Amino acid sequence: xxxxxxxxxxxxxxxxxxxxxxxxxxxxxxxxxxxxxxxxxxxxxxxxxxxxxxxxxxxxxxxxxxxxxxxxxxxxxxxxxxxxxxxxxxxxxxxxxxxxxxxxxxxxxxxxxxxxxxxxxxxxxxxxxxxxxxxxxxxxxxxxxxxxxxxxxxxxxxxxxxxxxxxxxxxxxxxxxxxxxxxxxxxxxxxxxxxxxxxxxxxxxxxxxxxxxxxxxxxxxxxxxxxxxxxxxxxxxxxxxxxxxxxxxxxxxxxxxxxxxxxxxxxxxxxxxxxxxxxxxxxxxxxxxxxxxxxxxxxxxxxxxxxxxxxxxxxxxxxxxxxxxxxxxxxxxxxxxxxxxxxxxxxxxxxxxxxxxxxxxxxxxxxxxxxxxxxxxxxxxxxxxxxxxxxxxxxxxxxxxxxxxxxxxxxxxxxxxxxxxxxxxxxxxxxxxxxxxxxxxxxxxxxxxxxxxxxxxxxxxxxxxxxxxxxxxxxxxxxxxxxxxxxxxxxxxxxxxxxxxxxxxxxxxxxxxxxxxxxxxxxxxxxxxxxxxxxxxxxxxxxxxxxxxxxxxxxxxxxxxxxxxxxxxxxxxxxxxxxxxxxxxxxxxxxxxxxxxxxxxxxxxxxxxxxxxxxxxxxxxxxxxxxxxxxxxxxxxxxxxxxxxxxxxxxxxxxxxxxxxxxxxxxxxxxxxxxxxx
Length: 678
Hints:
Elements: H1 11-21, H2 27-46, H3 52-67, E1 83-86, H4 92-101, H5 109-113, H6 143-162, E2 171-176, H7 177-181, H8 183-195, E3 200-206, E4 209-210, E5 213-214, H9 223-229, E6 233-238, H10 242-254, E7 259-264, H11 287-297, H12 308-319, H13 322-334, H14 338-346, H15 353-367, E8 371-372, H16 373-387, E9 391-395, H17 399-402, E10 411-412, E11 421-423, H18 428-441, E12 445-451, H19 455-468, E13 473-477, H20 495-500, E14 506-508, H21 513-525, E15 531-534, E16 539-540, E17 557-560, E18 568-572, H22 576-589, E19 594-598, H23 602-606, H24 610-617, E20 622-629, H25 634-637, E21 642-646, H26 655-661, H27 666-677
Parallel strand pairs: 1-2, 2-3, 3-7, 6-7, 9-11, 9-12, 10-11, 12-13, 13-15, 14-15, 18-19, 18-20, 20-21
Antiparallel strand pairs: 4-5, 8-16, 17-19
Helix pairs in contact: 2-3, 2-4, 2-11, 2-12, 3-4, 3-10, 6-8, 6-18, 8-18, 15-16, 15-21, 16-21, 18-19, 22-27
């Protein structure tokens, strides 16, 4: 057994490599060697990186880009292009080399020379937005795979709406052993197989090596049998044989199922001593090994030099999709749904949706319903689903609790993609990753529901959405100890604080039906990142009696001002705002005047001017109220403020008993105000 990160035990890999290198190299191998050489050079220049995967998968990537991937390097944002996701993001130089060789603007030799350096589009792992040819941020293994399921699903749903003449492309993935070991791959693969996403193909870099060494030290499963059980078509091939690669990719194109191709490769192909070992996984080859690799590959060129005879077929591959793109543009120009197609692809919201929401909020101000905010969310969705045809929903098996399904949406089912509601199953992480893929694909705005406590399972995908500035809307219900009898396992305590710590994420906890509608407006318009709607199980009274503008958009506002000088300012969120209002009335009857501030979104409040923050918070002592951990509240309460909330986990009992038990009550607020006044 090979030792951790060692170079021993690779005799079989070196023997196989020698046999392959002894074969007469064709044009495809020469093109692949350009990828290998650029990966070696860039990693050596940076003195860090992962050369092994690009060197091992260069042949597979060449076959894909040269003959199968539908793209036009001159127009990387062409909508009907195939999507390529490098799930094994540590092998980023594979993607950067492909973008360079195929002639993508903005990924020249100088960019490759700056690999892993500050402000380089060739970052250590692919970063969405750094170059238009990078479809998503990858690096956390398995997420590229899972996100690609959302991309493939979005393609099917949009094809059902606009027709094959406008939407007819595939999603291709390169994934490694690590991607397929991550639990999210199981969630995503099962969903893709169930939905029969036949235009999804995964090329598995089956090199049997991880950072620790041989994968045999940690796994012995039959991966292809697993995928077959999920409803995938499978192939096992020599990942260095162009004929087998070509046949397998052609097979995938004709498959009625999603397809995984196990490409048996040698990690670090060409390296004279380290090939087939963990030694080439995550560090530079080193001068002697790099020189030996190039010699073995027959690459007799200076660093970062690619001869013109190799550039030529690569540039031809980059231009191969130009004719298809021009034909597509002609079809688009004549298509009866052109205007709507261009609108949704541009991410422009339709006319009338804002007016519909304004009318709805006005009706709430008049009717003053007493509803759980999850119910208020459903009511808002009834308006939004009708006004926004690109809005698509779903839930992780909690549809009836999250209240995310609206009548008339239609179901997305295996082979039937005309609906707008997706049953993700109990796959919270897979759902969140797929939602990212739907959003990244373009043309749709995804929302998905689960219990707030299960955001723990989704956090990596939420974080990736925040990194990518991706619009994904999470409907997270049962938001506190107000969940009640299901007990502490289901009662989120620390979740608000931890998620508020995440950059570029809006955490919205509305207090009543109007604030919930406003939160939905904010989430729909927030095209620069994900939004979380944190909603109650239990009913709350209507607090707002006017619906002009969107007060939630400022993050916090005075919902009930003191009649005169403030003795204190009570700041609350969500269901606890009504407690604060009740406490204000009790205090007023005793001659003590306080202001109540509703703070549904800390992040938006933090963006306001210092003058506005001071106006809202005032100079009086401050009391914070939230049925959650108080971590982070000190920013708004100051050093002398009092926090009324949770200091530990919850318990199993009816909600009203729990609020009393944990001291989150009107009486506790009143007592805190009086204490601050002494």
